[in-house]
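Example: Winged helix DNA-binding domain-containing protein.
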Amino acid sequence: MTVLDTRALNRATLARQLLLDRADVPVLDAVAHLGGLQAQEPQEPFVGLWSRLRAFDPAVLSNLLTERRLVRTHLMRRTVHLVTAADILAWRARHDSMLRQRVLGVYRRELDGIDLDELAAAGRAVMADDEPRSMTELARALTERWPTPGPRALGEMLIALIPVAQLPPRGLWRTRAGVRNLLLSSWLGREIDPPASDGSDPVGQALVRRYLAAFGPAASADLRAWCGLAGLPAAVAAIREELVTFRDERGRELLDLPDAPRPDPDTPAPVRFLPAFDNALLGYHDRSRIIDDAHRGLSVAGARVVLVDGRVAATWSVTADAVMVTPLRRFSRADRTTVAEQGRALASFLSDNDRHRVQIAASPR
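Written out as structure tokens, the predicted fold is:
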């Protein structure tokens, strides 16, 4: 079986994630290809798409949200994701059990003894008036009936039980707004797709294919790390004959689509600035293809990172008048030049300030 080394996996990841070359595709198609973008920080998807798409216009993303073609909602790993309306309608029911179990993993004691189906029905009844509500407002509407858990535990569980959308203006370009939830069926004008009645798992199989298209070659553990779903081995088995297999240097079996891009490992990789919680990092259990183990914690800490030669080499932040870059390793003179060039382009995108300054800290010794 062919062994793919770390650099080969890195270049495959960059190609699938639209980070090797900026893509000339519509925003909606890019979000669909990526299987959604993690979006608990509302402005971060704009940077993620700017780094991936040629001539990205943030107004297009905002318009897709207000036109209800993109949706902000809890999905993979119970985190807020920006996904297409078509995908959330198809995928939400498949995530129900995971969403419920992840809330119970945090609030099991507070929610002990509560009939969750009864709680869900009561929550739906409250939201049936199509009045947007925050999670706290929704929980407080039911605290008289369930006073023990407290609004936080009750609200988190309600949001997991009931398919909802986070409404604009939250998530619009350069807009600060709180979370207001509405039933997904009310926002999109139709109910989510029910599970298959014959016990098959077409949605699980579709998720496997879509994951590999955007993240492969990858192991089953990587797939689970991306979506948070435990019950996909059967889906993988059902389509295994469609797939090709490899090994990584650790001996893990990697699955992939036969015709998906796997570039030459020596393909040059441009500097890319990634937003907080980008799935190019979080979409894997083994993230060594893109980030050193010593810096793995950055991927879950909300750090914004810079890719140099395809790997995480720095963090970045924004001040009032500059993009600040902090190297994690020694930069060559060429590295500093290319990072500064891309940083100025990012500063121009993020700000109306004409100065477009970039400051790169000294490299660590």
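The mean pLDDT is 95.
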